Amino acid sequence: MSGNLNLKKLTAILAISTFIFLSAVTGVLVDVYLYAEKPVNTDPLEKIVVITPGQGFQALSKQLYKAGIIEHPVKFEWFSRLKGYDKKIKAGEYLLSFSMSPHKILEVIVSGKVRLHRITIPEGYHLRQIARALAEAGFGTENDFLKAATDPIRVNEYGIDAKTFEGYLFPDTYLFPRDATPEMVVSAMVKRFWSVMKPEWEDRAGALGFSIHQVITLASIIEKETGAAHERPLISSVFHNRLKRKMRLESDPTVIYGIKGYDGNIKRKHLAERTPYNTYQIKGLPPGPIANTGIESIKAALYPADTRLLYFVSKRDNTHQFSTNVKDHNRAVRKYQLRR
User: Fold this and answer.
1) What share of the chain in percent tops pLDDT 70?
2) Among 29, 271, 306, 336, which residue has the fewest nearby CB atoms (within 10 Å)?
């Protein structure tokens, strides 16, 4: 009889102990889950947090605690382990605020929603200008970008018949993570280029007797020659007419592109120097684009105005005086350039 009583007592003690233990565990779990949904405060102030590759979760929780973004790093770690987040954090630069709950913070970090940086590449920039702009914005070095942008193997992989990506890096506003590699930047810009190229433009190029590469080359020259947007089709018509007549294009921007260490001052000797890009010396188009152009210049290259124009000269106000013959052109040169 006493044996049964002892067994009942032991069973009761175990039941009570189990209940107390489960109640305690449940209480802890509830506390942890309530903690995970409560932000430090309602302050929308944001802080930049950088998670390095290979960084441990404990180091991350301490980092967030020191930054004041979370409280109770131990609870933070417990909740992360319960949800399986501690094994899924992604390196990168994050923008986190005090008003975000620990749960939300973890969701952001696990999803890899890194902070993106905006950079605008203007129309008409050539490779070195783009490299400089990216370097100044904190995206690597000029040399690293130029190396990626002049890799002929990668160029051909994108279906481009050239040795560099010059002309195929579409000018636009981009959003990149801080750790974006030059290859990632180049890829985004080339994909943007192909996304804006209309399928029917290849047919139009063929009808003109041009390859797409030649169209982009001509478009880049139009881009660099144009000061007033409405003149693009007129400038295009001049170049198309000269090409049809087997006349040299005689475009200063192409000459400048071929000058190593150009100091901003084009001289008579430059016009006389024979380079692949000196259209005063070579006939036809240069071997490739001299800049990265926008849509309007590409359209102008494909759809020039219907004119008999063969010459143009700057009027020093971003517009040009156009002529159909050399006599009128020389008169315009004297008027607008020589001031006679």
Assistant:
1) 91
2) 306
Q: Which CATH architecture has domain 26-111?
A: 2-Layer Sandwich (3.30)
Helix (H), strand (E) at residue 91: none
Whole-angstrom distance, CA of residue 279 vs CA of residue 261? 19
User: What are the start and end residues of each CATH 3.30.1490.480 domain in the chain?
Assistant: 26-111
151 class by beta-carbon count within 10 Å (0-12 exposed, 13-18 middle, 19+ buried)? middle
81 or 7, which is more confident: 81
22, 23, 24, 26: CA torsion to nearest 10: 80
> What per-residue string of b and e applies to 42-70 under the rule 16 or more CB within 10 Å gives b?
eeeeeeebebeeeeebeebbebbeeeebb
Instruction: Tell me the whole-structure pTM to 2 decimals.
Output: 0.84
| Locus of tokens 């290259």 | 301
Residue 207 corresponds to which tokens in the numbers above? 């009808």
Residues 297/220, Cβ–Cβ less than 8 Å: yes
3-state secondary structure of 99: coil
Letter for the amino acid at 331? R
Contact criterion met (CB below 8 Å) for 40 and 98: yes
Cβ proximity of 36 and 71 under 8 Å: no
Q: Mapped to the 3 state alphabet, what secondary structure does 263-306 carry?
A: CCCCCHHHHHCCCCCCCCCCCCCCCCCCCCCCHHHHHHHHCCCC
Assigned token pair, 191: 């994909």
Instruction: Please check whether residue 327 is in contact with residue 205, taking contact to mean a CB–CB distance below 8 angstroms.
Output: no
Asked if pLDDT for residue 173 goes beyond 80, the answer is yes
CA distance 133 to 122: 10
